[in-house]
Design goal:
This protein is of the alpha/beta class and about 300 residues long. It has one domain: Rossmann fold (3-Layer(aba) Sandwich), CATH 3.40.50. It is built from eight helices and eleven strands. The chain has an eight-stranded mixed beta sheet, sandwiched between helices. A three-stranded mixed beta sheet has the order 5-9-8. Helix 3 links the parallel strand 6 and strand 7. Helix 2 crosses helix 3. The two termini are about 25 Å apart.
Amino acid sequence: MYSNVEFHSEGAELRGRLYSHRDNSRPIVVMTHGTTATITMAINIYAERVFDAGYDVLLYDHRNLGRSGGEPRQEINPWIQTRGYRDAVGFLRSKGENRRIILWGDSFSAGLALVAGAVIEDISGIVAQVPVCGPSIPERSFDQTAFMTLKEIFHDGDVTGGPEQTTGPLPVVSSDQINNPSLLTPIQAYRWFIEHGGRHGSGWENRATRIIPDTPVPCSPFVTAPYLNMPVQMMIGTDDEMVHCNIEAQRAVFDLIPGEKEFLEIPGGHFGLLWHPSEEFEAASEAQIAFLRRLTD
């Protein structure tokens, strides 16, 4: 069903799976996971569903995480991860393939897909599952100058960050926020990560360092949404527990998208779409495949 692949990004090799049909002419979906998760933590089931529906899939771990290379291990930087999307697309295009490419992201990566889609040329669509859009609607508005600044930072800006912009290292999740606080605090996050990350061969580690560099404009879909000129599907959980998945912020980002778009609400919380088997998983995967078919048929 798939072959193991790797490609270069930001001084490291990103590794994952290429699910490919024999004819090499089908649209391809570039998929990656949310905060610290790896390619065998439910996202591979989404990849298999998309593949079975007739599409090819490039599924990979972010830099510093899972099977991918990069140091420091377990470090998360939104700019670096957004450039990972760019380099995944570049890897596919370097193979001489001229076919439609769709970006797919979950949680933190879903928000980044809404950034990457505006700054990578010729993206055909985006599926953003429970995207991180922020804890609230920003007080600051972003104009075209802000967007052009974001593009410059994305392509070659300094995004190293410093101690003031660094959180951690600390656990990703914890059942005791008083004595052992973690990056992600809801108990639902703890349950999902321990269940899926604890499975044999997942490659997940319960520690992380997060860097949000102090850049002139943030790596945020509020900056890029007005420039998403491809069809976009945003899928949210009606009772999302994650503070940075505020539904008002998600809806505000969606409203900024000028073109064809779809906003779907799936009953349940942030991690309901990642539990397999579950009714939420089935509803999400079916809706995403229906969107892909409308997009590419």
